[in-house]
Amino acid sequence: MNFHSIRAIYVFEMARTFRTIAQSIISPVLSTVLYFIVFGTAIGSRIEDVNGVDYGAFIVPGLIMLTLLQQSVTNASFGIYFPKFVGTIYELLTAPISFIEVTIGYVGAAASKAVMIALIILATSTFFVDVQIAHPFWMVAFLLLTAVSFSLLGFIIGIWASNFEQLQLIPLLVITPLVFLGGAFYSADMLPPAWQVVMHLNPVFYLISGFRWSFFGLADVPVEVSLMAVSAFLVVCISFIWWIFKSGWKLRS
Amino acid sequence: MSPVISIKNLSKTYEGGFKALDDVSLDIRKGEILALLGPNGAGKTTLISAICGLVRPSSGSITVGGHDIVEDYRAARSLVGLVPQEINIEPFEKVIATTRFSRGLFGKPRNEAHIERVLRSLSLWEKRNSKNMELSGGMRRRVLIAKALSHEPSVLFLDEPSAGVDVALRRDMWQLVGELRDAGVTIILTTHYIEEAEEMADRIAVINHGKILVVEDKARLMAQMGQKHMTLELVEALDALPDCLGQYGLNRSADGMSLHFSYDTQAERTGITRLIADLAAQGISVRDIVTKQSSLEEVFLDLVGEEA
Question: Do the Cβ atoms of A94 and B101 come within 8 Å?
Fold first, then answer.
């Protein structure tokens, strides 16, 4: 394992985060605060509780998951797309570095940034609601697994994208709707039975359910199912990236 | 001495069917400067890209330092530094950070003394905290060289290093390349500037339509393939060439005061003695004789022209 190479990519990517701190950190935190004000306070004041949990606290895991998924995908996709865009990808492709090391460097940095923002949002939410974490270990485990899995997805998107429009396409048109429809702001049993069936087809639903369980001990599906879903997604993404580097798809001519 | 780079029967056909390299075999000696000459689209960049791992060969094999570039890519690539033709550089990053990144990426531990040495040698040390986007085109090209040298390669590829740089920087770069060669670095450069190859190279490889046409020591190539040109300045203007001088292929100047004669230095008989005798027999007096060696550019054009 070439640790110097991994470190170089990781440090380079994290430096970008701190260089663009307003865009990288302040912007998502501000968006989340606005969600709390609109959903938690304005709308939440009209909803008593959800399965015994205060509505303001109930949406915290969903909001964190929303940001975590968006940040993981966006950071990783931009991280690998930008060298393609400015042409510096040649250096990565000529370096004595394996696909595993490239992936660890870029995905590690993207996931680190996403987790960092998620934790900032968690800390911010304590100013608005009383947040209890029933299973801290599993909360961290879900946070990391989700961040890594969706950073891998972002990495794939970054390699696939040929322009900035394609780069934004999946996060805006797929990830955000899946999170909103995956129970970020409500429980599955608050929907009509037909929509509950549709909801079960949404992979993000399992992530939010498992993550919410780690906070309140309440879940729409058994936590083991959530864990299996995110693990399966992780394996699929790693396999696809392995194939990309083996075939040179979108990278080597 | 075993070659530092050995290319055997290398071919590359792109998806669209374009054959960029056609059965190329080439050995590059340790410590030499090899200039790869060829017109646009000849296959120079594809050849370099294949050695560096950017392009997948359709067939053939390449070793760098005895390491196969596919089977043992880590060892092979760690020896190679590439300065690409296009100025591809992180615009928002600082000069020193982007140079450090390259060193780390190639698996080398941090070495600030080496980074400083490289940046100073390229007159970039004063600009180390400037963002790349704030630099001029010539300075950015220097940053590309600094990145390639940051990980101490033993083989350096310079793909059109002088494209778009001013004369002063070009001279600086030539000096740097000379210093690197003295330090034992093997240098392969592609160039459109024949003057550059003539100035720096130990050997010349000419490539066209994906084939290596010739690989030869620069001096020997010019001696072997070079023609000499002789100008005979006459005492009196010559209105027309006598028929008996037609065999020499002489060109008469517009004012008739000089005759131009080209001859092959490698030929058994150059024809000079006979020409002088024939001129004297015709009563044509010669005031002066000037000879000139073919430039590498003329040699190159001859080769490419013949092949086309």
Answer: no
